[in-house]
């Protein structure tokens, strides 16, 4: 029997048989569930359920891309724009690299192409919930076991990748909350200063997507990092575009 304190998983899926199967298996595994089949209704519920004053927010969202009303991409983008950090696992029949990266660009934390193995879904969901638990513990407790935390400074900002935050004291918005994929891209660039990095290398090593042809969908992420960290995003000095190849991170421009 599902316990009242069990994590609540939101299932946003319009295929009735798939939604019922997810509900049955998740509840059998001890989770609680909430189901929405329409994109507009789902976003309204999510914004209300994940609001700061909400008493019972979902621990994670399983979100179909193709829905009546709003699609999954626009739903997750709206959540992130509203400052909601609830982890989102996209369920999509659109398995092209461009679609996968577009989902990450919108703010999704992970994706799973349809049809999928139930064991893989549970593994992905468990990983998302575990990561959120680690982040919450790090943010609320100063007495955790010491672990190396990747914190650095850039252009007057403090970058804390474990907390998914960029902090600054001279802006109206003192803390910028990163999505998981924004943080992973930033981590990769910070780990490879001054190196010219091809888009394909980023796709394979950050998003773990194998693709024979190049894609420019990743450009949206670079635009975001520039907006967060560049003194003048229209004239970048840290996150440079190398025409026809990819990007180069310069930590300390001369």
What would the average pLDDT be, to the nearest integer?
A: 84
Strand order of the largest sheet: 2-1-3-4-5
Q: What string gives the helices and strands in order?
A: EHEHEHEHEHEEEEHEHHEE
Report the CATH architecture of the largest domain.
3-Layer(aba) Sandwich
Q: What structural class is derived from the secondary structure elements?
A: alpha/beta
Q: Using the alpha-carbon principal axes, give the shape.
A: globular
Give the helix level as a range of percent. 25-40%
> Roughly how many Å apart are the termini?
63 Å
Question: What features would you describe in this structure?
Answer:
The chain has 254 residues and is α/β, with parallel strands linked by helices. It has two domains: 133 residues, Rossmann fold, CATH 3.40.50.2300; 99 residues, Orthogonal Bundle (Arc Repressor Mutant, subunit A). Helix content is 38%, strand content 19%. It has eight helices and twelve strands. The strands form three sheets. It has a five-stranded parallel beta sheet, with helices on both faces. Strands 6-7-8-9 form a four-stranded antiparallel beta sheet, with no helix packed on it. Strands 10-12-11 form a three-stranded antiparallel beta sheet. The longest helix is centred in the middle third of the chain and has 23 residues. The protein is globular and about 60 Å long. About 5% of the residues have low confidence.
